[in-house]
Amino acid sequence: MGTELGKYKSCVSARSTDKEILKGAQDGGIVTQLFAFALDEGIIDGAIVAGAGDEPWRPRPFIATTKAELFAARGTKYNICPNVSFIKEATRSYGLDKVGIVGTPCQMQAVRKGQLYPIGLRDVGDKIALAIGIFCMENFPYQSIVQLVEDHAAMKMEAVKKMEIGKGKFWVYGQRGQVVQLPLKVTHKYEQPGCHVCLDYVANLADVSTGSVGSADGWSTVFVRTRAGDSVWAKAIAAGCFETQPIEKVKPGLELVSKLANEKITKNKTTLEERATFGVGKALRNPYI
Ligand code: SF4
Q1: Nearest protein CA to atom 8 of ligand 1, as residue
Q2: Residue bearing the CA closest to ligand 1, atom 3
Q3: 0.85 surpassed by pTM
Q4: How far, CA to CA in Å, does 208 sit from each of 35, 74, 135, 149, 202?
Q5: At residue 279, does pLDDT exceed 90?
Q6: Fold assignment, 140-190
Q7: Which residues contact residue 99 at a Cβ distance below 8 angstroms, ignoring those fewer than 6 apart?
Q8: Residue 75 CB–ligand 1 contact under 6 Å
Q9: What average pLDDT does the segment 202-222 reach?
Q10: In the chain, what are the domain boundaries?
Q11: Edge to edge, what strands does the sheet with 160-166 contain?
Q12: Which uninterrupted H or E stretch holds 244?
């Protein structure tokens, strides 16, 4: 495997041992379980998560300081939730000194950039105690999710129990047990254009990154990347929070994660090169001179 998976200290397939967490989890309940453990242990004093917004499946950043609040935010919502914009709120209005944050790979990049160049995030960067990244191939504006669910899958947004991208399809699960699958060629045109120049699939800059790809149903693949990530992960394992399996023993395993990461990077590098040919990505020249 090459650089497509980023640097990491260890990688396993894992799932939470808490049945309540698993019930509402997207896959192995890694984010909820790890934040819940970190809260219990005082490693974080709150976490910025994708909470419920004003409309069904429209997330808004939410600062969870209790397990119940973390539980309420379980599951993936396939549209952008501006969690990074809440870091200041978490530290200033909520007074948190040890902040957990979950986000997409691009949001992990923003967190690290904010720590290195804290313009607008003064006195805040060193309060990020645990950054968890989620694998991400692409994302959608909220209106696009509405189109996909209501027009293509013929389901009401409020009747949806879960959405998922996997096995080459976009899956919509209804509260009454209905399942609709859409081929990804239908969803492509709804993707955010910015995602087409994104070169990170597995959240290389997170402390811990996770996603379903590579592991069996109900389990998640977990990369432990940094010292902070390693420390909290080791403590959580010792406390019995997770069942794990060596990733080498799991099918499809890292081979698939690597394949998808490479596909994303190759495809999006091509888009970057194409955009450079029509001026975007280079310093623009005034055509009237
Ligand atoms: S594809 Fe990249 S830019 Fe788009 S949401 Fe995912 S990480 Fe962010």
Answers
A1: 106
A2: 195
A3: yes
A4: 11, 17, 11, 31, 10
A5: no
A6: Nuclear Transport Factor 2; Chain: A, (3.10.450)
A7: 44, 45, 46, 47, 48, 87, 90, 91, 127, 128, 129, 130
A8: no
A9: 96
A10: 8-137+199-277, 140-190
A11: 160-166, 169-174, 179-183
A12: strand 242-246
Are 214 and 256 contacting, i.e. CB atoms less than 8 angstroms apart? yes
pLDDT at 80: 84
90 to each of 85, 87, 96, 208, 275, how far by Cα in Å? 10, 5, 6, 20, 37
Taking CA atoms, 142 is separated from 54, 57, 60, 61, 183, in Å, by: 12, 8, 11, 14, 19
- Closest ligand 1 atom number to CA of residue 136: 6
Residue identifier of the C-alpha nearest atom 5 of ligand 1: 139
User: pLDDT tens-digit profile of 214-238?
Assistant: 999 999 999 999 999 999 999 999 9
Amino acid residing at 158: E
- Residues 194, 198, 201, 205, Cα dihedral to 10°: -110
Instruction: For residue 64, report the phi and psi dihedrals to the nearest 5 degrees.
Output: -90, 125
